[in-house]
Amino acid sequence: MPELPEVETIRRDLAEQVIGLTISAIQVLDDRVIRNCSARQFCRQCLGKTITTVTRRGKAIVIQFSPPGYAIIQPMMTGHLVYDPVGEKVTDRDTKIVFTLSNQSRLNYNDQRLFGRIQYVDDLKKIEFFRHIGPEPLEKEFTVDWLKLNLEKRSGPIKSLLMNQHFIAGIGNIYASEILFRSRISPRRSARRLKREEIALLHRATVDILKEAVSLRGTSMRNYRDLSSTKGNFMNRIKVYGREQEKCLQCKTPITKIVQAGRSTFYCKRCQR
Ligand SMILES: [Zn+2]
């Protein structure tokens, strides 16, 4: 699933290509990806509108229009945006929506298994998910003090909490494992029992890893690709995720895989305490 670095990569590329362009046609090939209105309503709301900004909140992309309105794209497990600057690429069987823009370029939304979702709203407060989402880890609001104060209120293991979008936005399974490895904290540790110095390490690792991953255009584990269908480069920096039984790159102990809240966690029993 694309996490913060992958969605941010898509957002930046998209902003470079589409800001200032107007949506001149929309072809809905499968209306099941549109979640909060009919395909006809969705097209009527978006058509003729100009894209003014492309922002991100957690793992969602927010396209803002003029006249005012927003299209929110949540790629989830399988959603994928493909930008075609010359408007010639043929759609494939996974293409669900084709947006034709005023310079004849096209933006396709592909989604093989229909896990992703697209919504149109006139007010972002109408998106339920945005009302309860936690702070952005790369914004100023995410500080060591905030983290300490809020970890104290939470029970349960730190790994599951890092992935909880109500607690903090944008982190999923890959980066939660990598952040904990760099912090040298076991994923099984209780969130509220972390010590002040561990929280400072956790904060540092969260910011550093997410920034590095954004600068390397994300991680391509299974199906993530950027707007031009290219893989991300953070793969080469992965230390624990998906490396079960392989040697820890620091101490050579085999990496352990456990399941927490139904998700796989990878860690080094020796390096992470
Ligand atoms: Zn180790």
Secondary-structure map:
Layout: H1 4-18, E1 23-28, H2 39-46, E2 50-57, E3 60-66, E4 69-74, E5 79-84, E6 95-101, E7 106-111, E8 117-121, H3 128-131, H4 144-151, H5 158-163, H6 173-183, H7 196-215, E9 256-260, E10 263-267
Antiparallel strand pairs: 1-6, 2-3, 3-4, 4-8, 5-7, 6-7, 9-10
Helix pairs in contact: 1-7, 6-7
This protein binds zinc ion (ZN).
Describe this structure in words.
This protein has 273 residues and is an alpha+beta fold. The protein folds into 2 domains: 4-131, MutM-like, N-terminal (N-terminal domain of MutM-like DNA repair proteins); 144-267, Helicase, Ruva Protein, domain 3 (Orthogonal Bundle). It has 7 helices and 10 strands. It has helices at residues 4-18, 39-46, 128-131, 144-151, 158-163, 173-183, 196-215, and strands spanning 23-28, 50-57, 60-66, 69-74, 79-84, 95-101, 106-111, 117-121, 256-260, 263-267. Strands 1-6-7-5 form a 4-stranded antiparallel β-sheet, with helices on one face. α6 (173-183) crosses α7 (196-215). The protein is elongated. It starts with a helix and ends in a 6-residue tail after the last strand. The structure holds zinc ion.
| End-to-end separation | 27 Å
Question: What top-tier CATH class of the largest domain fits best?
Answer: Alpha Beta
How much strand? 15-25%
Structural class: alpha+beta
| Annotated CATH topology of the largest domain | N-terminal domain of MutM-like DNA repair proteins
- Total beta strand runs: 10
Provide the succession of SSEs: HEHEEEEEEEHHHHHEE
The unreliable regions are none
Shape: elongated
Neighbour order of strands in the largest sheet = 1-6-7-5
Bound molecules: zinc ion
Number of helices: 7
State the major sheet.
Answer: 4 strands, antiparallel
**CATH homology superfamily of the largest domain:** MutM-like, N-terminal
Radius of gyration: 20 Å
